[in-house]
Task: structure prediction
Amino acid sequence: MRNRIIFATTNEGKLKEIRLILKDLDYDIISMKDAGICIDIVEDGSTFEENAIIKARTIMELTGEMVLADDSGLEVDAMDKAPGIYSARFLGETTSYDIKNNYILDQLKGLPLEERSARFVCVIACAFPDGEIVTKRATIEGFIGNEIAGDGGFGYDPIFWVPEYGCTSAELSTDIKNKISHRGKALEAMKDVIRAYEKSGEKISHL
Result:
């Protein structure tokens, strides 16, 4: 039986993406639901780092297992970097992303591309059973497009324009998206931390 890592999320789209990126680790990546955990975690941090740590630490203390958590979001410069850490709760937790995406498009209506700069931010936190917590941050820079486009990905992907590829994040192939995305880059960095921990079992926060 392989070792496992609990990923502190209930978002199935996100979990599918995470499992693909971490498939070369010798771990089964399971969700909170798979682990039999059903709790509401209060994400009251003021940064992506603080919220990711809150989630990872909470589940690690409940289970005694290695736990990964992410906090990620979209920063739109013309909206004073909103929705930011409130991306999942923007306009209400149960509000559809079609509504959220159209709201952002309306806020930026008429602005030229250079004034529509934005980025996705992702912080991955890993809480180890010995209590150590390590975080890795990554971003992808782009712009808010003029319309919703693409049916891949999830969340704000259909309005996030990636200039290098001339399309939205939702129009990228899965392989390309996972290679260049904020979450993909942060998880790749975290792989090195987990592998170092496996080999040494020593403190690895310097990585």
The first strand starts at residue 3 and ends at 7. The chain has a mean pLDDT of 93. Strands lie at 3-7, 27-31, 67-76, 82-83, 117-127, 133-144, 160-162, 167-168. Residues 53 and 143 are 28 Å apart (CA to CA).
